[in-house]
Write a structure and sequence with these properties.
globular, N-utilizing Substance Protein B Homolog, Chain A, 13% strand, 4-stranded antiparallel sheet, alpha/beta
């Protein structure tokens, strides 16, 4: 049964452009599956999706035909079988026979083909297949890393560039991307102490964020603290960059805060709780109506005003005046390359062609934020991507085109003392392999 659920989830991702983190929990609930069976189905689903690129290369070689020429239902079953053979302790005979049984249900005429392909896959372990199929590490290190660690080459190249060409650390990042990420909770300041939250949920306080709690497992949405709005699910890196804006030194008034891209509401929830402690009020802007509703739910009971509008309308929308806000957060839409470990299918969906429209939107939103903030006020530009064009290029271009002086504030002192690997400043790039967080980028700007 776990294999059947995993297959259905994988098929939905490839057939319907579904998201595994949405469809799989619903399928598990429908089947009444919990405990070890649910954990096994989750591992098979997420693991197969993460490693699709490398599994496809192996299946292509084992089948003697391009994987794209295989009937999609059979192709997904073969991916699932190959993942069990190469990445789990499932005995080879069990992986082969269970997959052939699955093919018998979804592609009856292909059972012999599936059996032959999987038996060929089983002739080598993963290292053996990488040795056979990957380009030489000496002559094509990017191509080698891409196949060995199941990432598209353009993403490996972008990571290596952001890491200054350090291929050893790039390898560590790719390995971390393929691990199951921990669940982080945010203890909302003023509503629950993180030590109290950790005791309540059986977790542990975070390493860096003063509000983070690491959850050992389970369904966080079912926790009373989350259901009651005392805490919410949020990566520790997201907590750190939102808190950095709140703690940055600021001269003059400090009561008007703005989150220009607030959906689905995690950072708005944290900023709203901090604003409540300091007598400030947060305006949370979200262009998508359904996401604006999520922000409203996430900030219920906090001093937050939710606007369902486009953040680029600063100056033309009377509710978003220019020169008005003291602190502004721009958590810009991005490729999400910094959270690939949480979204297993996204590495294969994103394309380099996604970058031009996204970076244009990022510049427009940051430009709007700089118009919205008062002289002397602060803007934090944040992305969950380390891609250079979404980080340094976007910030530099928007600052240059602002039409008034914009100064970079060193973001490193705004993060907890003792955090390693923060670089030379003034911007900060967090990393899974260094900090255990998503790869969040932070630039803090002060309007002159």
């Amino acid at each position: 049964m776990p294999r059947h659920v995993a297959y259905q989830a994988i098929a939905a991702v490839h057939r319907d452009d579904a998201y595994a983190n949405l469809v799989l929990p619903a399928m598990l609930r429908d089947e009444g599956m919990a405990g070890r069976d649910a954990a096994f189905a989750t591992e098979l689903t997420y693991g197969t999706l993460r490693h699709t690129g490398t599994l496809d290369a192996i299946i292509t070689d084992a089948a003697g035909r391009d994987v794209q020429r295989i009937d999609p239902p059979v192709r997904d079953a073969l991916r699932l079988g190959a993942y069990q053979l190469l990445h789990t302790r499932v005995p080879a005979h069990a992986a082969v026979s269970s997959t052939v049984d699955l093919v018998r249900a979804v592609g009856p005429g292909a059972t012999g083909f599936a059996n032959a392909v999987l038996r060929e896959v089983a002739t080598r372990d993963l290292d053996g297949w990488v040795a056979k199929l990957a380009p030489s590490e000496q002559t094509d290190p990017i191509g080698h890393l891409a196949l060995a660690y199941s990432h598209p080459q353009w993403i490996v190249r972008a990571f290596a560039e952001a890491l200054g060409g350090d291929l050893g650390e790039t390898r560590r990042l790719l390995i971390e991307d393929n691990e199951r990420p921990p669940v982080h909770l945010c203890a909302r300041p003023g509503l629950i102490d993180p030590i109290e939250l950790a005791d309540e949920v059986g977790g542990a306080p975070g390493a860096f964020s003063p509000y983070a709690v690491y959850l050992p497992g389970g369904a966080p949405g079912e926790l009373p603290a989350v259901a009651e709005g005392r805490a919410h699910v949020q990566d520790e890196g997201s907590q750190l960059v939102a808190n950095a804006l709140a703690v940055a030194p600021l001269d003059g008034p400090d009561g008007r805060w703005l989150d220009l891209c607030a959906g689905p509401g995690g950072k708005a929830g944290l900023l709203g709780a901090l604003a409540a402690q300091r007598g400030a009020r947060l305006t949370a802007v979200e262009v998508a109506e359904h996401r604006a509703r999520l922000v409203a739910q996430a900030t219920r009971g906090l001093p937050v005003n939710v606007l369902n509008t486009d953040g680029r309308t600063v100056g033309s929308d009377p509710k978003l005046p220019e020169d008005h806000f003291d602190r502004v957060l721009v958590d810009a839409p991005c490729t999400g390359l910094g959270s690939l470990r949480r979204r297993p299918e996204s590495r294969w969906r994103r394309q380099p062609s996604d970058l031009p429209p996204l970076t244009r939107l990022q510049r427009e939103l940051l430009t709007a934020a700089l118009r919205a903030v008062r002289p002397g006020g602060l803007v934090a530009y944040v992305t969950c991507s380390p891609h250079i064009v979404e980080t340094h290029v976007t910030v530099t271009e928007a600052s240059r085109r602002a039409g008034f002086p914009v100064d970079f504030v060193d973001a490193r002192p705004l993060l907890p003392a003792g955090m390693p690997g923060l670089g030379d400043g003034p911007t900060v790039q967090l990393w899974p392999q260094r900090h255990g967080t998503d790869a969040m980028f932070l630039a803090v700007l002060r309007r002159g």
